[in-house]
């Protein structure tokens, strides 16, 4: 309890150090204030443990006294009143002792809090000093980092090496006695020498500019002289024409050729000029010429739109029927220009591709006809009949360019007037209107905005000339290579070059017994080719063949789709194995894996560039994987006798995985088969 609570009542007995005191209230209050401060000083002299022991003893004594007082009161004897008072007085003394111990405890608690607060203030002060020091350290570290990362402008300048500096710089700049021992002075000296050199170079630069201006003036004078010389040279060339005729110089022939080219229609003229320029600059084996009647070209006039407006003889004749009129209109609509341009592409083996370009005047489109001349007479192959056919030789030179429809959208309206359904009915006579032919003639037909007249553009022709010539020569070489291979395939021989021998094992038992061309309709009727047709990998412009590979009682049929862009675009094989039933990719996972070996992993079979042996290598791989398929089949224990196809190929594992796939990959030079 505090001193304020003690002032509310008048104490009867006041104890200090265990001794009782008596007095008046004012004096007791003053003594109590003195006692408060004396107890505060007394706290430091007293032992808290002893005070605690005193507290326990006092409490026990109070409990004893209270129990005795209760016992005396319960007896009800009047003589016990003096004993009860005596014990009450002793209890009051003990209560005073407890109050003193309570004040001492409160004083100790207050002092402990004060000491804790003072210690906390000291810790906060030290922590603040620590934070200030850490901030100063961080600031100093940043300044040190800035100093270390500082880059002077001279570091970006490429100074001469020290050896050149001391060798070329004068002593008053280099000062070897000082700079060799002090790097800072050395750098300053090198910068001074750099400044001196740049001043010299600036003076030289000004001198060079002056000499350049003088040379430019001299060039202008010479240009004026050369421009005045051109008319004189023209007069000299005109005077030398008789000499050129007498000496049969080729200049005159070229002059006549270009004179004839003046009568060409604009698309054929653009083609002639660009093809001639490309032949002279890049391809010496490209020959360009003009064929046709020049007189007819000179006498040519613009035909009327209506065939009835044509000139008719004055004599009377019977009026033609409606059918004859339509025929005349169609002939007039499909009329070609009298002149045509021929381009001959020669290969290294002296084989020649002859291209004849025509211009349909009323339709404003160009067409082309192709013909192949070989240096050596080729072996006749029945299946190779369509390879060099004019109708299929140039198909899809560019993807999707079939040459069956006119590329000019305006022609359809013209066809409707004369009853022509499509131009494909006349391509055999007129030639194919491929899109690349139009571009070689500088013609471009926008599909969104049909135009009746389209001007020929030289830049369009020049941009497509080089690539088209390369594609034409590649197409000719690939078709000739296929023609030669087909002759061997028809005799049951799969030709494999020495460069591709490592792709196959030494012994392959399966053999090719049939190779023949089939029409698209027959290919589409085969049940195991539906996936290829649905994937748009087989179109009527492609070539189709059927191969038959046999080994014992097993017969493997392979339907082949040959893309016109062979060998850039690989052939696609569809397989059907007739052995103990019919097995295709739809009911046998290993047949699908065999198709994947030739259709997906075809890049392994390209062979030497340009990859014209891809087809024969694919057929040879089919023979190889058929051997693996048959030799790894489990033996039927119900059939007596030896196994029909004994295992001759070395395989690491016969089957693998839940689909029980066979090891079709051949590993060279180890000679064993493994799974992919």
Automatic annotation (TrEMBL):
InterPro entries: THO_Thoc5. Residues 1-31 are annotated as: Disordered. Residues 22-31 have a biased composition (Basic and acidic residues). The keyword Plastid does not apply. It holds the Pfam family FmiP_Thoc5. It is found in: Nucleus. It comes from the Eukaryota. GO terms for biological process: mRNA export from nucleus. GO terms for cellular component: THO complex part of transcription export complex. Keywords: Nucleus. GO terms for molecular function: mRNA binding. Belongs to the THOC5 family. This is THO complex 5.
């Amino acid at each position: 309890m505090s001193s304020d609570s003690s002032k509310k009542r008048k104490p009867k007995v006041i104890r200090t150090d265990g001794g009782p005191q008596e007095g008046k209230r004012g004096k007791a209050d003053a003594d109590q204030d003195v006692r408060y401060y004396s107890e505060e000083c007394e706290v430091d002299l007293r032992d808290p443990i002893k005070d605690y022991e005193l507290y326990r003893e006092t409490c026990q004594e109070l409990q004893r006294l209270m129990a005795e007082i209760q016992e005396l009161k319960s007896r009800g004897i009047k003589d016990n009143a003096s004993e009860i008072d005596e014990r009450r007085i002793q209890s009051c003394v003990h209560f005073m002792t407890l109050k003193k111990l309570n004040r001492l405890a409160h004083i100790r608690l207050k002092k402990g809090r004060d000491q804790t607060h003072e210690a906390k203030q000291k810790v906060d002060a030290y922590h603040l000093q620590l934070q200030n020091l850490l901030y100063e350290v961080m600031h100093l570290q940043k300044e040190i980092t800035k100093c270390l990362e500082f880059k002077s402008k001279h570091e970006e300048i490429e100074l001469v090496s020290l050896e050149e500096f001391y060798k070329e710089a004068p002593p008053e700049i280099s000062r070897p006695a000082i700079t060799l021992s002090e790097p800072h002075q050395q750098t300053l000296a090198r910068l001074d020498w750099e400044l001196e050199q740049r001043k010299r170079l600036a003076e030289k630069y000004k001198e060079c500019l002056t000499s350049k201006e003088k040379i430019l003036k001299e060039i202008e004078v010479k240009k004026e002289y050369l421009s005045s010389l051109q008319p004189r040279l023209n007069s000299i060339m005109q005077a030398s024409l008789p000499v050129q005729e007498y000496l049969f110089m080729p200049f005159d022939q070229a002059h006549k050729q270009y004179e004839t080219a003046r009568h060409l229609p604009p698309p054929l003229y653009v083609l002639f000029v660009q093809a001639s320029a490309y032949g002279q600059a890049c391809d010496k084996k490209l020959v360009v010429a003009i064929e046709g009647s020049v007189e007819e070209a000179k006498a040519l006039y613009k035909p009327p739109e209506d065939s009835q407006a044509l000139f008719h003889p004055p004599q009377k004749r019977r009026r033609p029927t409606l059918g004859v009129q339509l025929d005349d209109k169609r002939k007039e609509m499909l009329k070609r220009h009298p002149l045509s341009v021929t381009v001959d592409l020669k290969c290294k083996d002296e084989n020649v591709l002859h291209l004849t370009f025509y211009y349909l005047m009323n339709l404003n489109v160009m067409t082309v006809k192709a013909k192949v001349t070989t240096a050596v007479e080729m072996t006749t192959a029945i299946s190779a009949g369509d390879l060099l056919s004019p109708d299929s030789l140039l198909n899809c030179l560019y993807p999707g360019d079939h040459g069956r429809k006119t590329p000019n959208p305006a022609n359809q309206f013209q066809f409707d007037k004369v009853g022509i359904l499509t131009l494909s009915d006349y391509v055999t006579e007129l030639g194919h209107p491929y899109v690349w032919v139009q571009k070689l003639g500088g013609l471009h037909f926008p599909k969104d905005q049909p135009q009746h007249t389209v001007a020929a553009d030289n830049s369009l022709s020049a941009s497509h000339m080089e690539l088209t010539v390369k594609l034409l020569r590649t197409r000719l070489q690939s078709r000739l290579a296929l023609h030669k291979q087909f002759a061997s395939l028809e005799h049951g021989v799969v030709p494999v070059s020495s460069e591709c021998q490592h792709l196959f094992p030494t012994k392959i038992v399966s053999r090719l017994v049939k190779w023949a061309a089939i029409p698209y309709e027959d290919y589409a009727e085969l049940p195991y080719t539906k996936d290829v047709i649905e994937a748009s990998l087989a179109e009527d412009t492609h070539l189709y063949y059927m191969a038959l590979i046999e080994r014992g009682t097993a017969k493997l049929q392979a339907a082949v789709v040959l893309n016109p862009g062979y060998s850039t675009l690989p052939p696609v094989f569809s397989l059907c194995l007739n052995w103990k039933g019919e097995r295709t990719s739809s009911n046998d996972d290993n047949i699908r894996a065999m198709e994947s070996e030739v259709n997906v992993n075809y890049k392994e079979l390209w062979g030497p560039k340009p990859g014209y042996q891809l087809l024969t290598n694919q057929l040879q791989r089919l023979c190889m994987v058929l051997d693996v398929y048959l030799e790894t089949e489990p033996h039927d224990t119900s059939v007596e006798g030896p196994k029909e196809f004994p295992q001759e190929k070395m395989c690491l594992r016969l089957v693998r995985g839940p689909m029980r796939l066979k090891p079709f990959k051949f590993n060279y030079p180890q000679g064993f088969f493994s799974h992919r």
